[in-house]
Amino acid sequence: MASGRIWIRGGRVLDPSTGRDEVADLLVEDGKIAAVGAGLAASGGEVLEAAGAWVVPGFIDLHVHLREPGQEYKEDIASGGRAAVAGGFSAVVCMANTQPANDDPSVTEYILDRARQESPARVYPVGAATRGLAGEVMTEMVALVDAGCVALSDDGKTIMDSGVMRRVFEYSQLARVAIITHAEDRTLVREGVVNEGPVSTRLGLPGNPSIAEVIHVARDLMLAELAGAHLHVAHVSTAGAVDLIRRARERGVHVTAEVTPHHLALTDEATLGYDTNTKMAPPLRSETDMRACRAGLADGTLDAIATDHAPHAVHEKDVEFTAAPPGVIGLETAVPVTLDLVRANELAPLEWVRRLSTNPARIIHRAGGSLAVGAAADIALVDPERRWIYDPAKGFSKSRNSPWAGREMIGCAIATLVGGVLVWDVERGVLLP
Amino acid sequence: MTGRDLLGIEGLDRTDLERILETAERMQEVGRRDVKKVPTLRGRTLINLFFEASTRTRTSFEIAGKRLSADVVNFTPSSSSLTKAESILDTAMTLDAMDPDAVIVRHKVAGVPKRIADALAAPVINAGDGAHEHPTQALLDCFTVKQEKGRFDGLTVTIIGDITHSRVARSNLYAFTKLGAEVRLAAPPTMLPTGIESLGAKAYTSLREALEGADVVMVLRIQQERLDGQPRRRDRARSRRPPPERDPRPGAQRRRGADGRPVSVRGALGEARGMRASGARSARQASEGDRARVGVVEEVRGEERDG
Amino acid sequence: MVLDDVAIRRALVRIAHEVVERTETLPELYLVAIPNGGVPLARIIAAQVRAISGLEVPVGILDTTLYRDDLTARGVRPPLRRTEMPSAVDDRAVVLVDDVVSTGRTIRAAMDALMDFGRPRSVQVIGLVDRGHRELPIKIDFVGKNVPTQREERVVLRGLSGDLEGPLEVVILESDGGAA
Question: Which of A42, A354, B14, B282 has its CA at a distance of 20 to 30 angstroms from the CA of residue A80?
Answer without folding.
Answer: A354
